[in-house]
Specification:
- The structure is a single chain.
- This protein is mainly alpha-helical.
- The protein has a domain of about 110 residues: Orthogonal Bundle (Topoisomerase I, Chain A, domain 4), CATH 1.10.132.80.
- It has five helices and two strands.
- A two-stranded antiparallel sheet has the order 1-2.
- Strand 1 and strand 2 form a beta hairpin.
- The radius of gyration is 25 Å and the shape is flat.
């Protein structure tokens, strides 16, 4: 791991290759045992994470974020490389939103790591997702919807 005050990355091409190696390493094989038929193996993708990427690059999550922002004295050539890696991780989390078992974790990861659902885009405030609600019209313009009652249930 890079020491304090020392740049973690110096070559954009090497960083890009190391990131690609990380994503390639997320593919695993698993054995499937169907009820009828022979067992077989299939490839599956282990979810990529910011922490996993930082570990693979032998750095910290905060360092990755600083490189992604282009903070001084870092070379601005690293910004699009880190941004693309973050987008690949976010894409995986977005796809998981459509899987019932994984949707809450994916929502949390998108909110905290990628600023989804936040107005300030900084993340970490714990306010949750925001939903725009249109209030009903004021005064006489609003009318209550009568309660539905099945036919023949009159109280008379």
């Amino acid at each position: 791991m890079a020491k304090r005050g020392q740049l973690a990355f110096t070559d954009p091409e090497e960083l890009e290759q190391r990131i690609e190696d990380y994503f390639q390493s997320r593919t695993r094989k698993r054995k499937i045992y169907p009820r009828d038929g022979e067992p077989y193996e299939e490839d599956y993708q282990v979810p990529p994470t910011m922490a996993g990427l930082a570990l693979a690059l032998d750095t910290t999550r905060q360092t990755l974020l600083a490189y992604g922002r282009g903070d001084e004295p870092r070379d601005p050539a690293f910004v699009p490389i880190i941004a693309r890696a973050k987008m690949r991780i976010a894409e995986f989390a977005e796809e998981a939103l459509y899987v019932r078992e994984a949707s809450n974790g994916a929502k949390f990861a998108l909110e905290v790591n990628h600023g989804y659902g936040r107005e300030d885009r900084e993340g970490g405030t714990g306010d949750g997702f925001h939903v725009a609600v249109i209030p009903p019209a004021a005064g006489e313009a609003s009318k209550a919807i009568p309660k539905w009652q099945p036919e023949g249930d009159d109280d008379e």
